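Re-running the complex after MR caught last week's input typo. The corrected sequence lines follow. Everything else is unchanged.
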Amino acid sequence: MSRARNAIVSALVLLVGRRRRRRPKPEDTRLVPALPPNPAAELAVLALLGLSSLSALGFILVYAFGDSLPAETPLLGTALGLAFLFLAAALIVVGLKLVPTEEIAEEYPPHEHPGEQQVIAELVDESGSRFTRRRLFKLGLLGAGGTLGLALLTPAVSFGPLFHVGNFLRTPWRRGRRLVDENGRPYKASDIEKNDFYLAFPEGTNDEEKDQMAASLVVIRLPPDQLRLPPHLKGYDAHGILAYSRICTHAGCAITLYRAPLFQPDEPRPALVCPCHYSTFDPTTGGTVTFGPAGRDLPLLPLYVDSAGYLRAKGNFDGPVGPSWWGVRLWKAQP
Amino acid sequence: MSSRGAPLTRRAVRWVDQRTASAPLLRKTLRYLFPDHWSFLLGEVALYAFMVLVATGIYLTFFFVDSTREVVFHGNYYPPLYGQRMSEAYASVVHLSLATRAGLLLRQTHHWAANVFIAAIVLHLFRIFFTGAYRKPRELTYWLGVTMLMLSLLEAYLGYSLVDDLMSGMGLVIGYSVGLSLPFVGQNLMNWLFDGMFPGSPKLWPRMYIAHVLIFPVLIGLLLGAHLLLVAMRHHTQFRRTKAQTERTIVGVPAFPGQAPRSLGLLAGTAGFLFLLGGLVQINPIWLWGPYHTYSSTNGAQPDWYLGWLIGALRLVPGWDFTIGSYTVVPNPFWGGAAFPLVVFGFLYFWPWLERRFSGDHAFHNLLDRPRDAPVRTAIGVAMVSWVFLVFMAGSADRVNVTFGIDYVSQIWVYRVIVWVLPVAFGFATWWICKELRASDLVVLDRHEAEAEARLARLRRGDEPPGDPGALAE
Amino acid sequence: MRAVLTLAVLAVAGLLATGPARAGSGTPKDPLAAYGYHLYGQYCLGCHGGNAAGRYDQPSSATGAGPGRAQGQQGGIGPSLHGVGAAAADFYLRTGYMPLRRIGLQPRREPVFLSNHEIDALVAYVASFGGPPIPTPRPGLGSLSQGQALFAEHCAGCHQIVGQGGYVTGALPPALVEATPRQVAEAVRIGPYVMPAFSRSSISDRQLDSIVRYVEFTKQPTRPGGWGLGFIGPVPEGLVTWFIAIPALLVLCLLLGRRFRREPGA
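Corrected-run output:
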């Protein structure tokens, strides 16, 4: 019984009691100036700390009962955010209103310490007094350190093919490969309608291989009389059906924009466009760049239609696929 | 034994000092003086945002799966993706966002913290630059800071690319292309880094992951520690606002008790705002973008704001690959993606040296300049900032077209001209404004001095009781 | 008398020459289509020509993207409406794309000033030239997931992955938030302006149902994380960072970094 009473009294003292102000020490022996108490500020801080605790508690409750609450994330965020913000407010009141803000002047540390510098320099110098062939030793150390460092870095070469870059030219396309859609269904020439654009892959590639840059195509059909392919690309189309690499030659994004004018006299000409930096390729001239930062024509895959009407590759692209590197114009793509 | 101080405090301090011999250091630290100006808190905001990043980041590492292995999504909680193939990494983030309690809050807070972190660093950098705080003896501190900025940009880019959603996947291939465009070495370097042509091998993702959660944070942490240590050892700079503040004498608020509650309040406040944002404002809703495939893309894809200057640059450069014969010496993305940031960071790194060289000022500086007091520096700084900013604006020209109807192609042509012309104009205008402000300062100074002289004269004649002669600076 | 007769003959000849002739029939018999024929003369004749056969006789200036204007201004030319069907007429009229407000530029969604009855009449008239009927998409039968995948493959490049619209060189694919299911189905098949036209062999009717269902979903995307910011990604996120978060933190810094004040008694 008396224990309960003691508990109640202690709680009351905690809540309401104030520390009796000690007799202030004389000013000249204090380290931090004495300021009169600020009961209003203290109350404010206590209130803010209380609110912060409630908010934090609220977070725990929302977390526990989140199933039956809508807008769970906003509630959680508000609760936790407010818990911190109330704490911040309490600390700010403490900082601005309760603890003294002293303005103290002090000397900056010296610019340098010539004495110590001298000692260190002499230390190093004198320690080396037994070395007669200093320059050679310095070279030797440099050599050993340098080569050792190089040796330690060498295993990093295994991270990937640093010297063998032939993979950049390889594509899954070879003569006779059929074009299929994402589900593996082969395309017939008659499937390709004008004013539409199609996603195509080499037949027989699995999902991982479909993600290789050289695999995906954007296939369109244009009236053959609209085509103005340059001499080296003559015959790459199959009766007006064109299969371009889907990967932009600027920075590798997929070309999924096709400008297909419904009424040609009044509308922009057909174009394949990349959504990243708006490189615009003209499909009638073999993928030449008409706007945007791409510096290289879009690679074209030569097509033919087999006896059953299916679209097949006649060979490989007219150039490497994807963004350019220093040797991109030196080589043709290879199967 | 002194009888001052509460018994508990005394016992605690005694315990620590006996075991660590750190009482002298603690005393010095507690009484370290902070300059009393709000702009000195910007670096702290960045620091606290970094703490929130690390804390929320650690949580996220317990849920993220760093694998590009394809899985089929079977989450009933999000029908639009049900049955679709995606990487395990992407699936793990979708699960964390939509099916893990508090997961979305912590993920969004982490992403907001990254945005705010870099914004705070940029503001802090502006304060450092335009007040000359980087001058001797603080060049080292400054270089550490610039390096941290660069590392933070890479770290953040890695972070949002790890999710493997449609938008960030597009961003990753662009980064790869910029790497590829490095003259002569690009192809080898990227083949090596990605373990093959893009999209690389299954080893790529764990590589990015360990870089993002261990290598970069440790690097940034170490540099940050060194940065703060140097700041403390050399002491902060200060504005000269009272006569007491000189090159020799620092006037400030001690860490304890004055500064501590303010700094802690800033920490709590930063964390509070970030969590509030993390809960109330959706950021990077990757479940809406869908998974990335090299053959997929979406309109309106953009990098996070701190890389917007790069997409602007990439879009502005006209379509040339610089070739010599059949050698593509400089593929196009190099200019916007590599050369441009190289120039900007090069400027940042070399500026202290350049300024020393051309102004001949090799002195120690503990006092800060007001921007107007260094017209050339301020003008050049404004010119650089406006250059980067205009390029940054160019990067959103397509959305401006969508929203405001101004033709994209026309905008690009206009930007191509103004990114060179306007910064020069702004630079000159700034220089002139600084000069004018200083001239008016001198007028004010003259007036103060004249009034002080007049008062002194009256005093000597006995016409006025002694008073406070007009103070110079206030 | 002779003058009057000559005038009468001339008048009749004139009417016969200038009035739109329809492959032998003149005004359609169906009263709705007849009313449409009358409206056609009022709103459409100038560009789509007599008998809805189209007008191609104006010289066209530069087409295609380039510096400055995306389109040259030109006189009234327009395609033939033979075979476009009720679907096309319904689409263009109900979105307000037609009657075209600005000749030579991309049609845009405009407030529709024609009444429902007038639109029905015009649709009936255009339908009388043959072509596909108005589609009836059933999004309830579609799969949301398949719709997302199809939309990502065929549509997101121009319209953005959640249909917020975008840019392609020379055109502005619109946001789909105002597009009704019927309009989506119509547009997919028609391919208006520079949009590709997807036939049934490319996107089947069931697949179209899925796409329509997905488009409906994009009008209110899942946003458990709070304010959606337009669902277009980092641009508005950056704006929030710089115009909401940073100012708030700056206010905090200003509050905390007060200038030295003389404390009472200090």
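None of the earlier attempt is carried over here. The radius of gyration of chain B is 27 Å. DSSP finds 16 helices and six strands in chain B.
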